[in-house]
Amino acid sequence: MRKLLFIVTILLVSVATFAQALPADKIIGVWESVDSDPKLKFEFYKSDDKYFGKLLYASNMFEGDGKTPKKDFKNPDKNLRSRSRYGITNITNLSYENGEYTGGNLYNPSEGRNYSVKAILKNEKEMDFRGYVGFSLFGKTMKLKRVQ
């Protein structure tokens, strides 16, 4: 009887742990801005237990020919100024806790500045993504919708 109780307890703890971990991964996928200028598209992915976002598209990321990606010429790190803006991982270190993604950073290549970020999934297709300096009260929220 004790052995059966032990096995059932382990099973319940395992199921509860799995159920808690699952919602965090809902951010993974491709998202695009709804109400921002420039128009943006990110791919969110997980590495270890953190979430990251790669810049797939920005309406201002190409030169006048519309094909050649602009360089990251405003980057504070002079060694990175020659890299392309296309495909850079500019959202880093988001952690999932209590229904929010917090503790992350956003690098804005148009300004060469870093911001703190947090994100909240409103549902499986909509996300509020907030960039700020210091306190989240002093920032800007961008609405994103899931592409895939």
From TrEMBL:
Source organism: Sphingobacterium puteale
DUF2147 domain: residues covered: 29-146
UniProt keyword list: Signal
Name of the featured protein: DUF2147 domain-containing protein
PANTHER family reported in the protein's UniProt record: BLL6627 PROTEIN (PTHR36919:SF2), BLR1215 PROTEIN (PTHR36919)
Lineage of producing organism: Bacteria, Pseudomonadati, Bacteroidota, Sphingobacteriia, Sphingobacteriales
rRNA-binding keyword on record: no
Position of the signal peptide: 1-21
